[in-house]
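Hey team,

Filing this mostly as a record. A colleague (T.K.) asked me to run one chain through the structure pipeline before their review meeting, and I want the input and output archived in the tracker in case anyone asks later how it was produced. No errors, nothing strange. Just documentation.

Input sequence:
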Amino acid sequence: MAIVTIDDELGRLLTQVASERGKTLEQFADEALRRMISENGGVHRTVRNGLPVMVVCDQRATIDPDKIRRWIEEDGL
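Output structure:
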């Protein structure tokens, strides 16, 4: 278990939506956070050296540059 602090306005909104769905605040927040994380797939955007990049979690397969080159050549790009 962890303690998370959120602002009052967000707390009221979460409580309202959870109640409308017949869930406790904890149940609703848990489900929403798990869904967000799974939909994101462990990828997030950031900026490095002024360029936008995607940071991928270690569980994701790495991108093989040779495969990319072959696909580009096969598609005539």
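Quick notes for T.K.: The chain has one domain: 8-75. The longest strand covers residues 43-48.
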